[in-house]
Amino acid sequence: MLWFPVSALAAGQNTDKQLEAFETRVGKIYWVRPQDGKMPIFLSAPSSQAATITPAQIESFEILELYGRANKEPYYKVKFDSGQLAYIRPEQFHEQFNLTITSIDPLANEKRRAEEDSKSEKERIEWINSQPWSPQVKQAAVNKQPTPGLNTAEVKRILGEPRRITKVRGVTKNATEEQWFYPDGTVLIFSNGLLSRAEHRTDGKK
């Protein structure tokens, strides 16, 4: 994080060294992050008299250049993810940095989870298509509808781990039964390790 004394950031008082420090932000990406309902204010032109621009919440922007460096009246020229151009004084940027402006994507965790889910789904479908099943069984598996006769390992690859498993022994003389409960209410019944049927129960989430 760069730190500049506020007094040294006043208009017309920037030294060459300070301008060089400002320049280090050029080419970097930042994100707007609302804080207590407040948003950073950008300008439509490099002038204190220009109209203000309020960006969208959690929108990224790149600092394109340090405009006005020659006359030591600098503005950051930025480009938002939407394509809109805007300006902000370095001192204003500094005041809002880590408040309403951040160098870390606020949605990074959500994006990472989405990427992981997408990768897992791709691997799931690839595995299904590699199995020696009929096209109908494969399509049902892609749609997360396992076909009776599949074993427990195959069903886990299709649906993932169940929320809980209930074992019932002695259903018949030579049979044992398992009931797999999934969050959406689906209950799968296995007999001797093979899927026998699927049900949907309102108590499936319990």
What does this structure look like?
The protein is built from five helices and eleven strands, in the order αββββββαβαααββββ. The chain folds into two domains: 6-102, no CATH class; 108-200, 2-Layer Sandwich (Beta-lactamase Inhibitory Protein, Chain:B, domain 1), CATH 3.30.1450. The protein has helices at residues 16-23, 90-96, 108-129, 135-142, 152-159, and strands at residues 29-32, 42-43, 52-53, 60-67, 75-80, 85-88, 101-102, 164-172, 175-181, 186-191, 194-200. The model is unreliable at 1-11 (pLDDT under 50). With 206 residues, it is of the alpha+beta class.
Please, what is the oligomeric state? single chain
Biggest sheet details: 5 strands, antiparallel
Strand tally = 11
Order of helices and strands: HEEEEEEHEHHHEEEE
Give the termini separation. 49 Å
The proportion of strand residues reads: 25-35%
User: What's the alpha carbon Rg, rounded to whole Å?
Assistant: 29 Å
Would you summarize the structure shown here?
The chain has 206 residues and is α+β, with helices and mostly antiparallel strands. The chain has helices at 16-23, 90-96, 108-129, 135-142, 152-159; strands at residues 29-32, 42-43, 52-53, 60-67, 75-80, 85-88, 101-102, 164-172, 175-181, 186-191, 194-200.
